[in-house]
Specification:
This is Peptidase A24A, prepilin type IV. The chain contains 7 helices and no strands. It is mainly α. The chain has one domain. The chain is elongated.
Length: about 170
Amino acid sequence: MTASPLAFGTFGFLLAVAAASDAAGRRISNRITVPLAVGGIAVQAAAGLAGAAGALVAVAAVGALLWVPWSRGWLGGGDWKLAVAAAPWVGLGSLASYLTTSAVAAGGLAAVAWVASGGAARRDIGANLRAAAAGRPLSIPARAAGDRVSVPAGAAFAVGALCAVLLGR
Protein backbone atom coordinates (compact mmCIF):
# COMPACT_ATOMS: atom_id res chain seq x y z
CA MET A 1 0.00 0.00 0.00
CA THR A 2 1.26 3.43 -0.91
CA ALA A 3 -0.47 6.12 1.11
CA SER A 4 0.27 9.81 1.29
CA PRO A 5 1.78 11.08 4.54
CA LEU A 6 -1.54 12.79 5.31
CA ALA A 7 -3.50 9.56 4.83
CA PHE A 8 -1.00 7.57 6.88
CA GLY A 9 -1.06 10.22 9.62
CA THR A 10 -4.85 10.08 9.70
CA PHE A 11 -4.67 6.28 9.93
CA GLY A 12 -2.27 6.49 12.87
CA PHE A 13 -4.32 9.18 14.59
CA LEU A 14 -7.57 7.21 14.30
CA LEU A 15 -5.87 4.08 15.62
CA ALA A 16 -4.43 6.03 18.57
CA VAL A 17 -7.84 7.53 19.41
CA ALA A 18 -9.48 4.10 19.16
CA ALA A 19 -6.84 2.48 21.38
CA ALA A 20 -7.08 5.25 23.97
CA SER A 21 -10.88 5.11 23.94
CA ASP A 22 -10.85 1.34 24.38
CA ALA A 23 -8.26 1.45 27.16
CA ALA A 24 -10.10 4.23 29.01
CA GLY A 25 -13.71 3.11 28.73
CA ARG A 26 -13.91 -0.10 26.69
CA ARG A 27 -15.82 1.74 23.97
CA ILE A 28 -14.85 2.39 20.36
CA SER A 29 -17.15 4.81 18.57
CA ASN A 30 -18.45 4.45 15.04
CA ARG A 31 -17.11 7.98 14.58
CA ILE A 32 -13.68 6.36 14.61
CA THR A 33 -14.29 3.04 12.86
CA VAL A 34 -16.35 4.29 9.91
CA PRO A 35 -13.80 6.92 8.74
CA LEU A 36 -11.04 4.37 9.34
CA ALA A 37 -12.72 1.78 7.10
CA VAL A 38 -13.74 4.26 4.40
CA GLY A 39 -10.27 5.81 4.37
CA GLY A 40 -8.59 2.43 4.03
CA ILE A 41 -10.82 1.40 1.15
CA ALA A 42 -10.24 4.78 -0.54
CA VAL A 43 -6.46 4.51 -0.19
CA GLN A 44 -6.49 1.00 -1.62
CA ALA A 45 -8.89 2.04 -4.41
CA ALA A 46 -6.47 4.81 -5.39
CA ALA A 47 -4.05 2.03 -6.31
CA GLY A 48 -6.61 0.57 -8.71
CA LEU A 49 -9.48 -1.87 -8.89
CA ALA A 50 -7.35 -4.73 -7.56
CA GLY A 51 -6.50 -2.66 -4.47
CA ALA A 52 -10.17 -1.90 -3.80
CA ALA A 53 -11.14 -5.54 -4.28
CA GLY A 54 -8.32 -6.66 -1.99
CA ALA A 55 -9.46 -4.19 0.67
CA LEU A 56 -13.01 -5.54 0.56
CA VAL A 57 -11.79 -9.14 0.71
CA ALA A 58 -9.60 -8.21 3.71
CA VAL A 59 -12.65 -6.69 5.44
CA ALA A 60 -14.71 -9.82 4.78
CA ALA A 61 -11.91 -12.16 5.87
CA VAL A 62 -11.23 -10.39 9.17
CA GLY A 63 -14.95 -9.98 9.86
CA ALA A 64 -15.62 -13.66 9.23
CA LEU A 65 -12.57 -14.84 11.17
CA LEU A 66 -13.44 -12.78 14.25
CA TRP A 67 -17.19 -13.41 14.10
CA VAL A 68 -17.01 -16.54 16.26
CA PRO A 69 -14.95 -14.93 19.06
CA TRP A 70 -17.34 -11.96 19.03
CA SER A 71 -20.48 -14.12 19.02
CA ARG A 72 -19.19 -16.16 21.99
CA GLY A 73 -18.40 -13.07 24.06
CA TRP A 74 -14.64 -13.48 23.78
CA LEU A 75 -14.33 -10.15 21.95
CA GLY A 76 -16.30 -6.93 22.30
CA GLY A 77 -18.29 -5.36 19.49
CA GLY A 78 -16.06 -2.30 19.31
CA ASP A 79 -12.98 -4.51 19.15
CA TRP A 80 -14.53 -6.44 16.25
CA LYS A 81 -15.46 -3.20 14.46
CA LEU A 82 -11.95 -1.78 14.85
CA ALA A 83 -10.31 -4.99 13.63
CA VAL A 84 -12.52 -5.00 10.53
CA ALA A 85 -12.13 -1.25 9.92
CA ALA A 86 -8.33 -1.49 9.99
CA ALA A 87 -8.25 -4.45 7.58
CA PRO A 88 -8.41 -2.41 4.33
CA TRP A 89 -5.36 -0.41 5.39
CA VAL A 90 -3.45 -3.62 6.02
CA GLY A 91 -4.54 -5.31 2.79
CA LEU A 92 -4.52 -8.98 1.90
CA GLY A 93 -0.76 -9.32 1.75
CA SER A 94 -0.24 -8.37 5.39
CA LEU A 95 -3.32 -9.93 7.01
CA ALA A 96 -1.34 -12.74 8.63
CA SER A 97 1.13 -10.23 10.07
CA TYR A 98 -1.75 -8.03 11.28
CA LEU A 99 -3.59 -10.81 13.06
CA THR A 100 -0.44 -12.38 14.52
CA THR A 101 0.86 -9.07 15.86
CA SER A 102 -2.59 -8.26 17.25
CA ALA A 103 -2.72 -11.63 19.02
CA VAL A 104 0.71 -11.10 20.57
CA ALA A 105 -0.30 -7.60 21.72
CA ALA A 106 -3.57 -8.97 23.15
CA GLY A 107 -1.61 -11.64 25.01
CA GLY A 108 0.60 -8.97 26.54
CA LEU A 109 -2.43 -6.93 27.56
CA ALA A 110 -4.07 -10.07 28.99
CA ALA A 111 -0.97 -10.71 31.10
CA VAL A 112 -1.14 -7.14 32.41
CA ALA A 113 -4.87 -7.56 33.16
CA TRP A 114 -4.19 -10.82 34.98
CA VAL A 115 -1.50 -9.21 37.15
CA ALA A 116 -3.75 -6.22 37.87
CA SER A 117 -6.72 -8.43 38.83
CA GLY A 118 -7.33 -9.87 42.28
CA GLY A 119 -7.35 -13.55 43.33
CA ALA A 120 -11.03 -14.26 42.60
CA ALA A 121 -10.72 -12.60 39.21
CA ARG A 122 -7.68 -14.74 38.44
CA ARG A 123 -9.75 -17.86 39.11
CA ASP A 124 -12.42 -16.48 36.77
CA ILE A 125 -9.76 -15.91 34.11
CA GLY A 126 -8.67 -19.54 34.50
CA ALA A 127 -12.28 -20.71 34.13
CA ASN A 128 -12.66 -18.60 31.00
CA LEU A 129 -9.44 -20.00 29.51
CA ARG A 130 -10.68 -23.54 30.09
CA ALA A 131 -14.05 -22.67 28.51
CA ALA A 132 -12.36 -21.09 25.50
CA ALA A 133 -10.06 -24.11 25.07
CA ALA A 134 -13.12 -26.38 25.10
CA GLY A 135 -14.93 -24.15 22.58
CA ARG A 136 -17.66 -23.18 25.03
CA PRO A 137 -19.00 -19.69 25.75
CA LEU A 138 -17.24 -17.91 28.59
CA SER A 139 -18.49 -18.98 32.00
CA ILE A 140 -17.79 -15.57 33.54
CA PRO A 141 -18.31 -12.35 31.54
CA ALA A 142 -15.03 -10.85 30.34
CA ARG A 143 -15.94 -7.44 31.73
CA ALA A 144 -14.22 -5.30 34.31
CA ALA A 145 -16.00 -5.46 37.66
CA GLY A 146 -14.79 -5.31 41.22
CA ASP A 147 -11.20 -6.54 41.24
CA ARG A 148 -11.45 -7.83 37.65
CA VAL A 149 -9.58 -5.98 34.88
CA SER A 150 -10.67 -6.56 31.28
CA VAL A 151 -8.44 -6.59 28.22
CA PRO A 152 -8.76 -3.68 25.75
CA ALA A 153 -8.50 -5.89 22.65
CA GLY A 154 -9.15 -2.88 20.41
CA ALA A 155 -5.82 -1.45 21.54
CA ALA A 156 -4.17 -4.73 20.50
CA PHE A 157 -5.79 -4.54 17.06
CA ALA A 158 -4.58 -0.94 16.72
CA VAL A 159 -1.01 -2.01 17.52
CA GLY A 160 -1.28 -4.95 15.12
CA ALA A 161 -2.61 -2.81 12.28
CA LEU A 162 0.03 -0.13 12.71
CA CYS A 163 2.84 -2.70 12.84
CA ALA A 164 1.52 -4.58 9.80
CA VAL A 165 1.25 -1.39 7.74
CA LEU A 166 4.67 -0.13 8.82
CA LEU A 167 6.34 -3.49 8.13
CA GLY A 168 4.48 -3.88 4.85
CA ARG A 169 5.62 -0.51 3.46
